[in-house]
Design goal:
Helix 2 packs across helix 3 (56-79). This protein has 3 helices and 5 strands. The strands form 2 sheets. A 3-stranded antiparallel β-sheet has the order 1-2-4, with no helix packed on it. Strand 1 (4-7) and strand 2 form a beta hairpin. It has one domain. It has helices at residues 19-26, 48-54, 56-79, and strands at residues 4-7, 10-13, 35-37, 41-42, 44-46. 48% of the residues lie in helices and 20% in strands. By secondary structure, it is of the alpha+beta class. The N and C termini lie far apart (42 Å).
Amino acid sequence: MEKQGKVLGVPYDFRQLTYRRMKSRMWNPDDERIFTPRSYGIGWDLNFYQLKLQYPWAFYVAVAAFVVSFARWAHKFFTSED
């Protein structure tokens, strides 16, 4: 099996994850696409640079969702009793 490619039009990439590839997919001013192939795994990543440029409201909604999600995880992690 190839480490990267497409299956039924859905991209996949199972190569070793690198910071450079992750940054080029998730914050890339040179790529006009909002949805880019995943840095690792199956599907698509968001190019947050283009999202902020083309749809600023959606960028702030995504950031807010991330902050809320992280806060819920942190609360659960730090208040759990073993």
